[in-house]
Amino acid sequence: MIGIFHVFMWYFLLILYMGQIRGVFGTYEPITYKTGCSLWGIIFIIAGVSIIRATRHPTQGMITCALTTNIFCIIIAIIASVLTTIELSSFNSVSYRNYGQAKLGREVSRVLLISYPLEFSIALTYSIFGCIDLVSIYLLSGKSRDADF
Hints:
Largest sheet: none
Number of helices: 5
Oligomer: single chain
Number of strands: 0
Distance between the termini: 46 Å
Number of domains: 1
């Protein structure tokens, strides 16, 4: 659900920033808009789907896929948090025509900044439990735990 929220916020920002009028100081195009940072919510959606599939059919391959996508989500959430913090820490002056749009876009970025740690914590939790599931599948499979050194 967080991924769907991020994709909708990306669409909102797309409509918001495309409607800017070229002013004296230019248009407001933050780094998160240029990189499509909130569009990365698609990765969160894919991770959620892989978790559901791994829960319904808990094979080693499905759990590994879910674990991999969750680790990727952790990395994405950290990068998105850093980019959003950089965006919010600097605010270059924009034309007064675009000031309202820039201010609204920054508020959306603040809301997204709150949701990135939530996504990080959810992905980290599922990654930990995914590792536990992999270990339990390994132990239940009856493979020898002896290692040749």
